[in-house]
Structure formats: structure tokens, C-alpha cells
Amino acid sequence: EVQLVQSGTEMKKPGESLKISCKASGYSFADYWIAWVRQMPGKGLEWVGIIYPDDSDTRYSPAFQGQVTISADKSISTAFLQWRRLKASDSAMYYCARDPHGPAAFLDTWGQGTLVTVSS
Amino acid sequence: ETVMTQSPATLSVSPGERANLSCRASQSVSDHLAWYQQKPGQAPRLLIRRASARATGVPARFSGSGSGTEFTLTISSLQSEDSGIYYCQQYKNWPPTTFGQGTRLEIK
């Protein structure tokens, strides 16, 4: 069974750094793009960016370029989303999802989400 | 950026009836259009890809149609478990791929 399991809820202060994870199982991790999607409280879905784990080819939405960093470690079948300096406006649910025909296509398997809360 | 506009914002339909959800793109996306269902507290679930191809395990009462800029998700014979928010996504013009703002489907 294809599965993406994300790291747990995070509560951080503005200015702190954060790295959340998404561990894949049930398929060849290196061969499929992994996307990150943001959902702010009560709002819709926003595509953050995407990575191809085999060669770490990464693409970002212009709205998120420079604000976050996407990475992957294929030795542990895990993708990451990180922030150097969090802002309150980064508070949201973040999903990772598999893109079977990337680098930009539909998302066929989703993680359960990681809730990030940034507050002083 | 391609803007996706969904209508209506909220739809209330009785069990057994049909629901038609619309999605309009600000420019042509060909058939590079997906539909997702999201229930409260859950991640989105892929329903339709390539405008009309049902994802694995999706019941046949879900169907998609359209191309270019106008798309429709039809749910025939609604069941109580079909309530939730439905999103369309275009993946023709990127970055970024973009989602509609969602249609909330309520079962009366």
C-alpha cells in the first residue's frame, strides 16, 4: 500500500526554524515527485512546490520561492519542508502528496497533514 | 497564474439526487484538470484526473467532464458520505498548479 506519513503537530515562535517530514512507503520513493500543499485555517489548497527525490530537482510556486526549502533524502524515503525564520502567517496545515506524472500533475496519494502553529 | 473559479460556493442536495459542481479556468488548461474531495479533519482525496478519468477505487457515481476552460464534476445518486468540500486543480499551466476555492457539498 502506498503511504505517506508526516511528522506531528508543531508549535513554534516567530523567528524560529522548522523542518517537517514526509516518509513514503509502498513504492519506489526516488521515482515519483513529492509535492507540498498548504491549507491555511478554513481556507483552500495552495501548491507550495515539488521535488524529484532521485536527483533533488525542485520547483517552487513563485509565492513560496525563497520562503521555504524543499528537500529529500532517498536513503530514508523522506521528503522535507523547512523554514529558516517562521512567521505567524506560516500557520497552516501542510500536506505532502505524491505526483505520479510530475513535475506538475494531479496528486494521487496524500499524507495526513502536519499542523504548524506559529505564535508568540 | 491560472485562476480557477468554482461554483456554487455551497450546494445542498437531497440523498439520491444529482449534484453538478462547476469549475472554470481563466485560460485553457486542456484536460489537465483534477477533482478532489476533502472531508473535515482529513487530507484531500483524488477523485478524477485528466478531467474525466476516475481514480482507483472511486465509485462510478462520480464523473467528470469538460475541457479547455469549463469543467463539471457530477455526483449521481448522492449518498450521505459524499458531503465535504470539493476542489478542482489545473496542472497545465505551472508553476504553480492552482486549485479552485472549493465547493461545499451538503446532504440534506
List keywords for this structure.
heterodimer, A: 120 residues, mainly beta, seven-stranded mixed β-sheet, four-stranded antiparallel β-sheet, 11 strands, B: 108 residues
Strand content of chain A: over 45%
Structural class of chain B: mainly beta
Major sheet of chain A, described briefly? Answer: 7 strands, mixed
Helix content of chain A: under 10%
Number of DSSP E strands of chain B: 11
Give me the secondary-structure category of chain A.
mainly beta
CA radius of gyration of chain B is 13 Å
Regions of chain B with pLDDT < 50 over 5+ consecutive residues?
Answer: none
Biggest chain contact:
A-B, 24 and 23 residues
Global morphology of chain A: globular
Seen as an oligomer or otherwise, the chain set is: heterodimer
Q: How does this structure look, described?
A:
The complex is a heterodimer of chains A (120) and B (108). With 120 residues, chain A is mainly beta. Helix content of chain A is 0%, strand content 50%. Chain A has no helices and 11 strands. Chain A is globular, with a radius of gyration of 13 Å. The termini of chain A are far apart. With 108 residues, chain B is an all-beta fold. Chain B contains no helices and 11 strands. Chain B has strands at 4-7, 10-13, 19-25, 33-38, 45-49, 53-54, 62-67, 70-75, 84-90, 98-99, 103-107. In chain B, strand 9 and strand 10 form a beta hairpin. Chain B starts with a strand and ends with a strand. The interface between A and B is medium-sized, with 24 and 23 residues.
